[in-house]
Amino acid sequence: MSSTRAHGGALSHPLPRHYAALLVGNVALALGPWSVRLADTGPVASGFWRLFLALPLLAVLAVRNRQPLTGFGKGAWAAVAVAGVLFALDLASWHIGIAATRLANASLFGNAGSLILMAWGVIAAHRRPRLAELAAVAAALAGAAILLGRSLEIDHATLVGDLFCILAGFFYAFYILLLQRARDRFGSWSLLFHASLTGAPVLLGLALFLGETVWPHNWWPLVALTLGSQIVGQGLLVYALRHFPPLLIGLALLTQPAVAVLAGWFAFGESVGWIDGFGMVLVAAALVLARLGEGPKR
Predict the structure, then answer these.
(1) Could you tell me if 245 and 10 are in contact, meaning their C-beta atoms sit under 8 angstroms apart?
(2) Which residue from 84, 112, 98, 113 is spatially nearest to 31, judged by alpha carbons?
(3) Dihedral, CA atoms, 275, 277, 282, 285, nearest 10 degrees?
(4) Is residue 6, in this structure, part of any structural domain at all?
(5) Is residue 10 part of a domain?
(6) Residue 291's Cα: distance from chain center in Å?
(7) By residue range, what is the domain housing residue 218?
(8) Which residue among 68, 127, 147, 186 has the highest number of C-beta atoms inside a 10 angstrom radius?
(9) Is residue 90, in this structure, part of any structural domain at all?
């Protein structure tokens, strides 16, 4: 799952290249689950390669953007290390879910961390939730109930896959909360490098514990996963998100489940009925409402 969000005010007049970056970044992230499915390693092992192969490129991006790779205090390093473990658990849960459920469901439920962050913001501010926040929770619960019910009708394993993707959203939310204060000081690329450096051994250990195939015979799905999800998708979003208001950022998220539906149908013959579509619309609407203060995740 990717893991940086850009902050800052939006430009008054975004240029065409900013719109293109926002769109292409979301499409690249939406195709990540496709690469996980095509990899001939286990799903958790593919997460390990996603982080491990990205480390040199992340280091270069951090240095080019003048973000420090050293000089972390003990407290900051401990927070980043724990965040890296949570990032690894996020990817492990999400990739297991991707292997078991429909790509569209994985894309939607994998972003559930946005709703958790929204709820945490309400609790931390000691205030009553706004109408939009209540609407987001209601839409999410209704949409999730529809999609989980439909998954249970298809196969028990599909339901389990959905639940793993929702669990990934929980891990991701706590990962972001840990990095919230350190992000402005150290920079997004630097923090992503250190989180990946800490998370990669955790994913490798989990893959070996689960008895997964770790060494691939076909490298291109893993290279595509690394470049698409960890570098191109994240890089374009880091570049584009600061140029847009939160509402447009939230609406751009809708491209991810749309692309995932098409990828699932084209590559794996996954069909989506009108009831599934209605549930997806409800969950997507909830994510847009929840992300009015946050940028897209993966």
Answers:
(1) yes
(2) 98
(3) -170
(4) no
(5) no
(6) 13
(7) 16-293
(8) 147
(9) yes
Considering only CA atoms, give the Rg of the chain: 18
Q: Which of 91, 97, 45, 27 is nearest to 221 (CA)?
A: 45
Tokens of 232: 């191109």
pLDDT digit string, tens, across residues 78-119? 888 898 999 999 999 999 999 998 888 888 888 777 777 777
Are residues 201 and 55 in contact, defined by beta-carbon separation less than 8 angstroms?
no
76 in Cβ contact with 182 (< 8 Å)? yes
Q: Indicate the number of domains in the chain.
A: 1
Token readout for 189 is 């690329």
Q: Shortest CA distance to 30 belongs to which of 210, 260, 240, 195? A: 260
Query: Are the CB atoms for 220 and 75 separated by under 8 Å?
Result: no
φ/ψ bin of 144: left (φ > 0), alpha (ψ from -120 to 50), beta (otherwise): alpha
DSSP state of 243: G
Q: Residue 129 corresponds to which tokens in the numbers above?
A: 């939730």
Q: CA separation (Å) from 141 to 10, 33, 253? A: 31, 24, 19
Q: What distance in Å separates the CA atoms of residue 94 and residue 120, rounded to the nearest whole number?
A: 22
Per-residue pLDDT tens digits for 131-167? 877 887 788 778 778 877 776 666 787 889 989 999 9
Encoded tokens for 111: 């972003």
CA distance 120 to 128: 12
Residues 198, 134: Cα–Cα separation, whole Å: 36
Q: What pTM does this model have? A: 0.80
Structural domain includes residue 187: yes
